[in-house]
Amino acid sequence: MKHPHNHPTSAYVAHTDGHCTSSALTRGPWHPDHQHAGPPVALVCRAFEAEAHKHGLTHLARLTANLLRPVPISDLEVKVATIYVGRNAGHFSAQLMAAGKEVGVFSALAQRESEFLLPEGLPGHPLPTIATPPKEATPAYFPFAGRHTGYSDLVETREARGHIFDGPCAIWFRLHHPLVEGEAPSPYQRVAVAADSGNGISAVLDYQRYSFVNSDLTINLLRRPLGEWMCLDARTWLGSNGCGLAESAIYDEHGLIGRASQSLAVRQLQH
User: Residue 189's domain is classified under what CATH number?
Assistant: First the structure.
């Protein structure tokens, strides 16, 4: 079995038996053996898209990830099931498996697309855009970049507003490498890779002194994403009970496409 750990050129290598091999490009900031949640959520997104397309459902309107355990940098398996498909929408579920253990459970809503002409003068329309496009945005860097090969090497980031890891900000994301070897990532997969970073880029606590890990992620999209660049306009809210919420408005270069939210467990690190 091929293992692209030494010189990875993609986040995953897919195999004919439905399994895939994870590369070091999936590594997250919290533990050297654990993945950032963005890549595995995008891997499951890929499986949902394939299953939905069998039913003529081409828009992934919602994806919810319940992250049960840290995802190891190892062989993974995605198991997808169709719950119900109706005239306009279908509901799907998935399991993410590693070494025989369930590390995540997921659900998705896929919709059938049809042409619809929006009436003029709708409140809130046309939809908002990000004022600074990616070509004019300043390069941004994760504070953990360069320590080892990982998520910060998988994606390119640019600051449209604010600063990364310094409170509310708007950050453009683009994949530097394919999600799966030999495949062009879909725009939905590009969104999923980025969306789990909302709590990181908008962090209000020092990540070297505190952890603020999310155990879930929900992405809602009002239309099909377009292009390579996806922007998270993110902010973090913390309670006094060790819990918090990160929320992101999601944009492509044409305007608002949806929102993402994450529930956070906030803890002070023991050194």
Answer: 2.40.160.210
Question: Which residues are paired to 220 by β-bridges?
Answer: 62, 259
How confident is the model over 109-131, as pLDDT tens digits?
999 999 889 999 999 999 999 99
Question: By residue range, what is the domain housing residue 84?
Answer: 12-113+132-268
The answer, yes or no, to whether residue 219 has pLDDT greater than 80, is yes
- What is the count of structural domains for the chain? 1
Domain contains 239: yes
Domain assignment present for 98: yes
Look over the chain and give the mean of its residue pLDDT values, rounded to a whole number: 94
Residue 149 within a domain: yes
Query: What is the value of pTM for the model shown?
Result: 0.94
pLDDT, tens digit, 9 for 90 and up, residues 18-53: 799 999 999 998 888 999 999 999 999 999 999 999
Report yes or no on 2 lying in a domain.
no
In the block, tokens 């004919």 appear at 16
